């Protein structure tokens, strides 16, 4: 079923302004705002080849592994993102990317796998000027997936980026992805702490990376979050030809 014709919810972290990181934003969502309760069997983060500064990938997977019950991995996805996906002269249509992304990864993971695609290109969904990310499939009719653009969230002040810049990009992506995961488990109504919506990149950086205590207790009971966060994780090289990164949990 095409994402353009299927019923789905779009949760977009976006800025409705012409200049990057300008205050003035909204959430774009369809009529379906709450899906059925479900727990991810795994989290797969796909990285497009045009994302060249990848220092955030390992730390991001590690941070997600610390709190989630589901295993987390990251891998390359050389998906063609051509001019046929353009929404404007300089932006790609997030819905069309999601359609192609779903088709390209259909054979990977089961129906409960949550998939996230990080790309370098700027994205949008009408009528908004641009997006940070969009999540599809919250309604439960299709498995959830998320399209994330690093254009406006990656910290780029030097090349190669410093450790502090990598940490900032990692934190931004973590907040975006963890919020999407929780929304996709049937908890779209949670709106405090890390689940709060930020009206700008400044608010996004300021908001907590933690869950509010009642929300955390609920998500632990549901089997989404670990009861006890682990202290760290260790990268394990697997399937190098496929660009797969996974982690061992250090418990």
UniProtKB/TrEMBL annotation:
Q: Which UniProt keywords apply?
A: Signal
Q: Which domain of life is it from?
A: Bacteria
The record's listing under Gene3D superfamilies reads: Collagenase (Catalytic Domain)
Q: Tell whether Signal is among the UniProt keywords.
A: yes
Q: What residue range is the signal peptide?
A: 1-28
Q: Which GO terms describe its molecular function?
A: metallopeptidase activity
InterPro entries, per this entry? MetalloPept_cat_dom_sf
The name this protein carries in UniProt is Uncharacterized protein
Organism classification: Bacteria, Pseudomonadati, Pseudomonadota, Alphaproteobacteria, Hyphomicrobiales
């Amino acid at each position: 079923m095409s994402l353009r014709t299927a019923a789905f919810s779009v949760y977009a972290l976006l800025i409705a302004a012409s200049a990057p990181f300008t205050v003035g934003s909204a959430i774009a969502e369809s009529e379906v705002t709450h899906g059925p309760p479900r727990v991810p069997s795994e989290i797969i983060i796909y990285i497009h080849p045009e994302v060249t500064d990848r220092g955030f990938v390992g730390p991001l997977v590690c941070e997600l592994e610390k709190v989630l019950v589901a295993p987390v991995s990251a891998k390359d996805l050389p998906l063609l993102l051509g001019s046929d996906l353009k929404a404007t002269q300089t932006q790609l249509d997030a819905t069309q990317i999601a359609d192609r992304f779903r088709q390209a990864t259909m054979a990977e993971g089961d129906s409960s796998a949550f998939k996230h695609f990080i790309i370098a290109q700027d994205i949008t969904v009408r009528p908004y000027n641009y997006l940070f990310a969009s999540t599809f499939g919250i309604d439960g009719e299709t498995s959830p997936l998320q399209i994330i653009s690093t254009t406006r969230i990656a910290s780029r002040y030097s090349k190669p980026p410093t450790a502090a810049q990598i940490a900032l990009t990692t934190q931004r992506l973590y907040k975006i992805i963890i919020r999407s995961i929780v929304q996709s488990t049937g908890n779209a109504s949670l709106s405090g702490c890390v689940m709060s919506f930020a009206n700008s990149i400044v608010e996004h950086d300021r908001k907590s990376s933690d869950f509010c205590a009642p929300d955390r207790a609920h998500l632990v009971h549901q089997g989404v979050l670990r009861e006890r966060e682990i202290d760290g994780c260790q990268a394990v090289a697997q399937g190098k030809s496929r660009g797969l990164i996974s982690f061992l949990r250090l418990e």
